[in-house]
Predict the structure.
Amino acid sequence: MATPRAKKKASPRATAARPAAKSVSNPAAAPAERKTLITTQLERLGVRRDFDLVLHLPLRYEDETRIMTIGDACAGGGSGVPVQVEGRVIDTEVMYRPRRQLVTRIEDDTGTLHLRFFNFYPSQAKVLATGATLRAFGEVKSGFFGGEMIHPRFHVLRGAEPLPQSLTPVYPTTAGLGQPLLRKLIERALSSQPLDDTLPEAVFAPLGVPGFATAVDVIHHPRALTAAGAQHEARLLQDRSHPAWRRIKFDELLAQQLSMRIHYRQRRARTAPALADRGALTERLLKLLPFELTGAQQRAWAEIARDIGAAHPMHRLLQGDVGSGKTVVAALAALRAVDNGLQAAVMAPTEILAEQHYRKFHEWLAPLGVNVAWLTGSQTKVERRAALAAIASGDTPVVVGTHALFQDTVQFKALGLAIVDEQHRFGVAQRLALRKKGRKAKAEEAPADEALEILNEPHQLMMSATPIPRTLSMSVYADLDVSVIDELPPGRTPVVTKLIADGRRAEVVARIRDACREGRQAYWVCPLIEESETLDLQTAIDTHAALTAEFPELRVGLAHGRLAPADKAAVMAGFKEGAIDLLVATTVIEVGVDVPNASQMVIEHAERFGLAQLHQLRGRVGRGSAESTCILLYQGPLSQTARQRLKVIYESTDGFAIAEADLALRGPGEYLGARQSGAPLLRFADLLEDKSLVEAAHEAAEQLLDNDPETARRHLERWLGGRSEFMKA
Ligand code: ADP
Ligand code: MG
């Protein structure tokens, strides 16, 4: 154990002293060995075929077309941007304080500059001999002795050497694969690969972007900066808004749209049981409900009913802000399946949420004579066996559960509809497993009949309380149909949000005491500490103890993720029934928990939560008719983004507005969660900055698939050939 570690410690200095590229072009390595090494390194960069090198585009550019005088550079001429200087070596020496380093001083007619190298090999001191002329490239910082560059890239001039004519591209790379070699490989690919356009001019010209060959040429070989307007062009290249970049981004977005829309069309070509409107159960539920559906709920239900009435699998996303009433729409869809003699499964990401759905479905469906089964990982073996048997025999037409429903042991008699709540919390694999649930059951009855098997694919209704901006939806949900419930049920009083510094905690405590004394209930949310689930738990336990002491007259409960499921369920049930006044909880209550009498919420360390999370949490109150308050306790000093987040949540209760702000603050990656995990969705396009291109690609994809499928195929081959597909579900 000790020896290899000691070895590892000793080696970095030795290897780091060499420029990275050296190890690859090591002449001692046999050619074949070298080949495989490069191949492995390229694969790490996602480069699998020669053409991928054409699309291996620079991360940024460095400007080596100009020399800045040392005087200007030291006076802040580069202001944070790397610059190039040229000068004669005055002297070079090894220094030992504060740590071993090589320091070279160079000068020109305008000033002196220190170059520092912390990792160097002894011969470097000889290269940097007094009197040599250097070109050095790097960022100038002001050090103790004046201007200095740390680890600049440099080379010794051997005579008059012309400056490069164009910006130097800097490519994404990996350990051991240096820029010069990568550049050479890319050059080779550019001259050997066909760069003909996949798209007719009519598709891209209206966007004001060049042909494909021109676009890659400009991006890999940016033009010289001497021409008028070139400075401007260089800036456009750097920030990727240049027409050449826009062409590449459009191509990428188009490939994404094509692949998702093909997926969409393929699904529409498959078969599923048509769930006809037989009226009985859905009508009866509507009559039994103590409320009327809102216009938005009616619209969403009509869209779903139309889809599942057709003999093709529906994949519809039902989006609606917290409290907008998605559950009842889901129940109607489930009843339509039951009306047609088929089963419906309802899946939720957490035990608490699944249990709540179970109660709701049971409350609504039992009076109609429809049995609802319940399946989670925490059941006893006996309970579980009974549930599985009832599901397999078809005795229970509706099943509610957690991830447990995805397991192989769960066999439906005839699954017609799968409902997935908070769909972004489930992975793609789980939804694929779901699709097979319908097939398997049938396959056992008629193992030889492939057609029958496919006939049984269930419809899928996905639900999300995370509203998503349109551009994003167009991009990531291009393979789905989307219904939006954009209206809250009437009679809700909007939640009042207060921002209160932690120093005024006593006031907050008094306020909660008053509210609970008046018969209202409250949540007290403890923050998530990212690095440590254990600490989280401790915080919740401590807070619970402190509040129990503070409110001897109140019944204080505690819910957190580590609680045994039965205990957690008991706590939640107690809160729902009013046996608990104040519920101390971690974010386990974030999703979907519905207790209308709970009108007060305190969120501790609100500055640590994300926007979407705060919005979800706040959505737990304001569900009844009592005036509701959400107090965001924060602890200063606040970071810039924390301040912005709190401002957004304070000023807005509109889920879509909050989603837009969240997207702007966090970027789309984090925002989409599980749906996007795995391969990166887009390498070049930015869903926020390139909105207009997303829309253009969306339209172009539909047109090509309708009118020119051969072009669509060619375009996809160029962008996807060899690489993993764009994510879909
Ligand atoms: P979410 O969309 O967040 O899942 P729910 O389905 O839990 O919302 O609904 C929130 C609450 O509103 C529930 O108590 C539900 O019974 C009630 N509700 C749903 N639709 C209506 C309506 N049209 N009128 C009045 N209350 C409704
Ligand atoms: Mg819900």
Observations:
- The first strand starts at residue 60 and ends at 62.
- The chain has four domains: 67-162, 192-269+690-720, 280-485, 495-652.
- The chain has 28 helices and 22 strands.
